[in-house]
Amino acid sequence: DARVTQTPRHKVTEMGQEVTMRCQPILGHNTVFWYRQTMMQGLELLAYFRNRAPLDDSGMPKDRFSAEMPDATLATLKIQPSEPRDSAVYFCASGLVLPQGSDTQYFGPGTRLTVL
Amino acid sequence: AQKVTQAQTEISVVEKEDVTLDCVYETRDTTYYLFWYKQPPSGELVFLIRRNSFDEQNEISGRYSWNFQKSTSSFNFTITASQVVDSAVYFCALSEAANTGGFKTIFGAGTRLFVKA
């Protein structure tokens, strides 16, 4: 049963510290998405990649957030420096974009980030 | 621009009642995809269904059914004979082609469903 995995599941850190979240997409999927979920804003798309190339990161605060895919089995989302307003659940999702269109996104369990 | 509206913030029903969750969307594209996801109290997002804009057939899966109507831009979700395990937040989502390539997905605000025993 293929699943998206995310680490860590929970992270508590202090303001100003660097945070790195990792995601392993489902093998064979060619798109990866990062979302942030908060009570106030709901689910927001931060960035997405296709075939490891970033297609859209317009939802991401560029000054402190960065997203990369060093290889097909790993996606990272980094916050440096972190701030209390970054506290949220961060979800990674992967999917398979076919020539005929979009496929379903399958979500990981999320990383619950608390910045004190 | 894309938009997904789930007007019902919270719904509370008693077990075995039927319940319908509404979803209305806006898009300028003729090709797009609609999804429903379930987020139980444990927090994960579980895929329920995907429809493309050219397939207006309604779908039934067990106690779940979906009614897609392009004329009213709606993609409603009905749970028949609800159960306590159906208690969750349900998200409707719309995916359409993005300028940057690929498809961009936006989610509605979600509807929290409480099913009481």
Structure, described:
The complex is a heterodimer of chains A (about 120) and B (about 120). In chain A, strands 2, 4, 5, 6, 9, 10 and 11 form a seven-stranded mixed beta sheet that branches. A four-stranded antiparallel beta sheet of chain A has the order 1-3-8-7, with no helix packed on it. The relative contact order of chain A is 0.33. Chain A contains no helices and eleven strands. Chain A is mostly beta strands and about 120 residues long. Chain A is about 0% helix and about 55% strand. Chain B is mostly beta strands. Chain B is built from no helices and twelve strands. In chain B, the strands form three sheets. In chain B, strands 2, 5, 6, 10, 11 and 12 form a six-stranded mixed beta sheet that branches. Chain B is globular, with a radius of gyration of 14 Å. The model of chain B has no long low-confidence stretch (mean pLDDT about 90). Chains A and B meet through strand 5, strand 9 and strand 10 of A and strand 5, strand 6 and strand 11 of B.
Q: What's the rounded overall pLDDT mean of chain A?
A: 92
What class would the helix/strand composition of chain B place it in? mainly beta
By DSSP (H or I, 4+ residues per run), the number of helices of chain B equals 0
Helix fraction of chain A by DSSP (H/I, runs of at least 4): under 10%
What structural category arises from helix and sheet content of chain A? Answer: mainly beta
Gyration radius of chain A (Cα, Å) is 14 Å
Provide a count of the helices of chain A: 0
The whole-number mean of residue pLDDT values of chain B reads 92
Multimeric organization: heterodimer
Order of helices and strands of chain B: EEEEEEEEEEEE
Biggest sheet details of chain A:
7 strands, mixed
User: Biggest interface, which chains?
Assistant: A-B, 24 and 25 residues
Quick one: biggest sheet of chain B? Answer: 6 strands, mixed
Distance between the termini of chain B: 41 Å
Strand content of chain A: over 45%
Q: What amount of the residues of chain B lies in strands?
A: over 45%
Contiguous runs where pLDDT drops below 50 for at least 5 residues of chain A:
none
The coarse silhouette of chain A is globular
- The geometry of chain B reads as globular
Approximate helicity band of chain B: under 10%
Give the terminus-to-terminus CA distance of chain A: 36 Å
